[in-house]
Amino acid sequence: MANSNRPTTKIANVYRGTFIHSTQQTALQILEDELLGVDTDGKIAFIERGAELDRLSRTFGFSPTEVTQLAQHEFFMPGLVDTHIHAPQYSYIGTALDMPLLQWLNTYTFPMESHFKDLKFAHSVYSKVVKRTLRNGTTTACYFATIHTDASLLLGQIANDFGQRALVGKVCMDRNDSVKHYKETNQESQEETCRFIAELLNKKYPLVRPVVTPRFALYCTAALLGQLGTIAKDNNLHIQSHIGETVEDIKLVQELFPESESYTDVYLKHNLLTDKTVMAHGCYLSDEELVLFRKTGASLSHCPNSNISLCSGMLDVRNVLKHKVKLGLGTDVAGGYSASMLDAVRRTLDTSKVLTIQNPEYDTLNFEEVFRLATLGGSQALSLDGQTGNFEVGKDFDALRVNVAAPGGPIDLVQCKEPKILLEKFLNLGDDRNIVEVFVAGRKVVPFAEPTTE
Ligand SMILES: Nc1nc2[nH]cnc2c(=O)[nH]1
Ligand SMILES: [Zn+2]
C-alpha cells in the first residue's frame, strides 16, 4: 500500500524489529525484522521487510543510522482500546463489589459521581485515570464522565494534554430518583449535552471527540432518549450506553417500555442504534437482538471483569462473533476492578473457559482472538478503525513497545524467544513494567513528558 513516490512524506521515526498485530483476515500476524516508518503527522508511512532498508531510506529520505532497533525480547503491538470505562468511578476502583448492579449504582456510584461537580476533585481523579490507563497501554479510551458538563470537558482536556485518544461522554439521566443531588431535568440534560458537544468540538483537540451518552434506558425518559438520538444524528456523533447487563434491569426496562419488543428495540426506536454506537455488556441479548446490532452496525463492549464482579452475567462472545457484530473489550471501571486492558484480555479468556466448563462443546476463544478484540476489534467497535487498531500504512501509529524481559518486571524468561510465545506470556503475565513506551498518533506519551504534581 505504500506509495514509494511520496515526496511530501517526511519521516519522523523509523523502528526495526518484531511487530505483532491483527488484520481482518488473521487474528495474529507476526512480522519479524520489519521496518516501520512514522511520518511527521504521526501516521504509518511504510511497514516493510528489514532487507528493504536501503531502498526505503532513499525513497523516504531518512538515514539508516537513525533507525531505532528493538532489543531481543521486545516487540511492538497496537495500542489497547478500552471501549467502556467510567472515569469518575476510578475514585473507588478495587472496592465496593459486594452487591448487584442496581443496588451498587444507588449505594456507591451515584453518591460518588455527584462529587464531580467539584472541578478540583474531578481534576485530581481524571488526571489519575488518564495516566493510569495510558501507562497500562490504553491508547484509546471511550469514557463515561458524569452529568456535570464542566467536569466532563475537563476530562477531555486532560486526555488531550496527556495525548490519549478519547471519546468522552457527559452522562445523561433524567429519570433517577434515588439520589438527591445527582439528577437532571430533561431540559438540563438536553441543553447541557448540546453545550458539552459544542464546547468540546470548539477546542479542536485532535484526538478527543464527544460521545452522546444516555446512561441507560432505565434512567432516561423516552423523550430524552429520542432527543439524544436526534442530537447524535444531527452532529454525526458517537453514541454509548448500557444494554442487557443483568436480568433485573432487562425486566425493569420491559416494564418501562412495554411498547418495545426488546431492550435493543428501545434504543432502535429512539435512533440510538447506529454504526457509531457502542453498547456495554449485552450479556442477555437474544439472537434477534444481535441481528439488529448487525443490521445497524452498532457494536458491543464486552466487560468481563465487571460482569463477574457484580455477578451480572456472562457474554457468549462466540455467539456475538457468529452474528458478525462488531465487538471490543472494556474495563468498565469500577464495576470492573482493574483499569488495565490486560486484565480485560484475561477475564475474557476466563469467561470463555467457564462457558466451556458448562458446555464442553463450546468453542473456547484463544488468546490470538482475544488479542484482536483488545486492539483491532476495539477500534472497529468505536468506528475508529480508519485511524487506529493495527499497523496499516495510513493509520496513526498507536503502539506499545513491549519488553517481555523488562528488568524488575513480572516475567521470568527461561528459554523461549519465539514472538508468539512472548506475546502470550505478556498477555497472561505482563503489566505496565513491560510496557516501556506508549505511542499515540506517533507521539511518545509514556514515559510521561512533563513532570506532574500528581
Ligand atoms: N456496570 C455499570 N452499569 C451501568 N448501568 C448504568 N450505569 C452503569 C454503570 O455505571 N456501571
Ligand atoms: Zn458501564
Q: Which properties best describe this structure?
A:
14 helices; four-stranded mixed sheet; 17 strands; 37% helix; nine-stranded parallel sheet; Guanine_deaminase; 454 residues; binds zinc ion; Metal_Hydrolase; TIM Barrel; Urease, subunit C, domain 1; EC 3.5.4.3; guanine deaminase activity; globular; alpha/beta; metal-binding; binds guanine
Structure, described:
There is one protein chain. This protein starts with 10 loop residues before the first strand and ends in an 8-residue tail after the last strand. Strands 6, 7, 8, 9, 10, 11, 12, 13 and 14 form a nine-stranded parallel β-sheet that branches. It has a four-stranded mixed β-sheet with strand order 3-2-1-4, with helices on both faces. The chain has helices spanning 53-60, 101-113, 119-135, 149-162, 186-203, 222-235, 247-256, 263-269, 287-296, 304-309, 317-322, 341-358, 367-381, 419-429; strands at 11-21, 29-39, 44-49, 68-69, 74-78, 80-86, 138-144, 165-169, 171-172, 208-214, 238-243, 277-281, 299-302, 326-329, 399-403, 435-440, 443-446. It has 454 residues and is of the alpha/beta class. It contains 14 helices and 17 strands. It is globular. The protein has two domains: 11-78 and 391-446, Roll (Urease, subunit C, domain 1), CATH 2.30.40.10; 80-381, Metal-dependent hydrolases (TIM Barrel), CATH 3.20.20.140. The chain binds guanine and zinc ion. Guanine binds next to α2.
